[in-house]
Amino acid sequence: MEREKKDKDFVHQPEYPGGPKAMSQFIYSQLRYPPEAQAAGIEGRVIVECDINEAGEVVATRVLKGLGYGCDEEAIRVVRLLRFRVKRTRGLRLLFHKKIHIEFKQPRFEPVALPSVAVQYQLVPVTTSSEAPPQSSAVYEYTISWMPR
After folding, report:
1. Tens digits of per-residue pLDDT, 114-126?
2. Does an H or E element contain 80, and which?
3. In this structure, are residues 59 and 52 in contact, taking their beta carbons and an 8 Å threshold?
């Protein structure tokens, strides 16, 4: 008869469901670049420390390294949306601390190659009823291309 193995960790750290990649995807899907930072061209990393209670909720946040221009407030807003999974720790109610790094990068717009458009038209002279219609009309062909700025 085998004994049940005891868990070797006394305290279990909170985990985001799906792991760190899922947490990053969630953060960057919710993150909105502040207009003040975008106008000023601000880029960088905000480091937020958060306190997580025994239910997996973020109860307090602090900015350890900030950028200003609304980036700190946006990082705190997104971190407060996170919900973690916490294993029971032998009946103890613990408060966990976690540091989260959030990168703010200006969106890069790649120039898109637009297709050329060919326009073809005919010039037909206007005739009065007494004149004979012209035998041939000239055909002009133009190609118009749009270039991104």
Report:
1. 666 666 666 555 5
2. helix 71-80
3. yes
Q: How far apart are CA 13 and CA 97, in angstroms?
A: 9
Confirm whether pTM is higher than 0.70: no
Burial readout 126-143 (b: 16 or more C-beta within 10 A, e: otherwise): eeeeeeeeeeeeeeeeee
Instruction: From residue 119, give the alpha-carbon distance in Å to each of 124, 139, 141, 146.
Output: 16, 11, 6, 13
Length of the chain equals 149
Structure tokens, 78: 């997104």
Query: Domains in the chain, ordered, with CATH?
Result: 20-104 (3.30.2420.10)
